Amino acid sequence: MNKRIKILVLLLLIIPMFIGCGVINKNADKNNNDGENEDQINQDDNKDEENNGQNNENDKEDEKDTITELIKTMTLDEKIGQMVILGFEGDSLNEDVKSLINQYKVGGFILFKRNVENSNQLLSLLNSLKETNSDNKIPLFLAVDEEGGKVSRMPDELIDLPNSNVVGESKNNEFAINLGRILGQQLQSFGFNLDFAPVLDVNSNPNNPVIGVRSLSSNPQVVGELGVEIMNGIKEKGIIPVVKHFPGHGDTSVDSHLGLPKVNKDLSSLRQLELIPFKEAIENDVDTIMIAHILFPELDPNYPASLSERLVTDLLRKEMGYKGVVITDDLTMGAIKDNYSINDAAVKAILAGGDIVLVCHEYENEITAIDSLKEAVVNGIITEERIDESVYRILKLKNKYKLEDRPVVSVDIETINNNINKLLNTYMK
């Protein structure tokens, strides 16, 4: 009984407080000639912003909880599988590819021109990869190097797009974003979901044997501004753009496919040129960055950027504030294979702060990379907590872009080509 009396007294004290608040608001409305109280509106707006902010935080927390719970259900093999993107030979599925999906639970594949015969075959191949992976928990990254121009893997039925330097010379933001949209549309039509583009290297060395016309400009501001536009255009079509090649491949005189380039610049010099476009991309919510196989002795005399904790963790993540997915360039390129074993390179890349290792050639190399990462965890060289950090970032990215293994029924080549022609006629008269 005493408890009931106390509750009743408490209610009698609280109710007048709410009534008083209501009376104050009504009086304020009467004193406002416009029928609105500006202060109250501002307060309501602030409350809405606070509520929206709170909702966003709650959504992020829910996503974090969901992904964290999923990771807890994954085996070590499944986690490590997510940390590789692999290439394969041929224009159809073979037993090696099926093994990589069913046994090793790999996170994704990259296709090259060697995998593309024509549009119908490419569509069938991508659908076959999705179907084979459909029993696994997590959808695949289906990736390609599609920059347009010199670097293109699309079927011959599609009209060629211009090199990036043409866009850079135009200094036209609309040209850039529409080029990105066309790139995204092409890839989306076939069922790809990740594009290793745009190139954010500054074309500062005229003797560079590998970048050249793939770069937007020798001006870092132009590269940053137009590169972000292309990136956003790709994003609009639901494709994950991967900007490359951090911290910058534009001032090399060696092709990293063939050997290990060396750039003798200190951090101050990089900040004034190479890092500018990447900084711009980070400020504009870039999701994925590829790390180059380039040695910067002034920053790390022992390891190329892709294997260097100083460049990946200290520079990119800590100093530049990047929180997204980091992927290496192909570990079977000459810059790596001529100086490191695949197993050593794969482990060093993750220890450096990378999330995904790219291995584009030979099934044995791919199995070696996967097995070496697992062995490093078992032997305590890489902690499973470190593995979980990368897997979390990867799953968060797949969740953001709503990746799924649903097949694509058909590709409308005519519509894509019409859009390409419209782009060319509009911006390249």
Short synopsis of the structure:
The protein is of the alpha/beta class.
Q: How are the secondary structure elements laid out?
A:
Elements: H1 2-30, H2 38-73, H3 76-82, E1 84-86, H4 95-102, E2 108-111, H5 119-133, E3 141-144, H6 164-170, H7 173-190, E4 194-195, H8 220-236, E5 240-246, H9 267-272, H10 275-283, E6 288-291, H11 309-319, E7 325-330, H12 334-337, H13 342-352, E8 356-359, H14 363-378, H15 384-400, H16 413-427
Helix pairs in contact: 2-15, 3-15, 7-8, 7-16, 8-10, 13-14
Q: Features of this protein?
A:
single chain; 429 residues; alpha/beta; TIM Barrel
Mind explaining what this structure looks like?
The protein is of the alpha/beta class and 429 residues long. The chain folds into 3 domains: 1-33; 37-73; 78-423, Alpha-Beta Barrel (TIM Barrel). Helices cover 53% and strands 8% of the residues. The protein has 16 helices and 8 strands. It has helices spanning 2-30, 38-73, 76-82, 95-102, 119-133, 164-170, 173-190, 220-236, 267-272, 275-283, 309-319, 334-337, 342-352, 363-378, 384-400, 413-427; strands spanning 84-86, 108-111, 141-144, 194-195, 240-246, 288-291, 325-330, 356-359. The chain has an 8-stranded parallel barrel, surrounded by 6 helices. Helix 4 links the parallel strand 1 (84-86) and strand 2. Helix 3 (76-82) crosses helix 15 (384-400). It is globular. It starts with a helix and ends with a helix.
- What spatial order of strands do you see in the largest sheet? 1-2-3-4-5-6-7-8
Helix content: 40-55%
Structure annotation, total helices: 16
Rg calc? 26 Å
Strand portion? 5-15%
Q: Regarding CATH, which class of the largest domain?
A: Alpha Beta
Mean pLDDT, as a whole number? 89
What is the count of β-strands?
8
Tally of structural domains? 3
* Distance N to C terminus: 89 Å
Q: CATH homologous superfamily of the largest domain?
A: Glycoside hydrolase, family 3, N-terminal domain
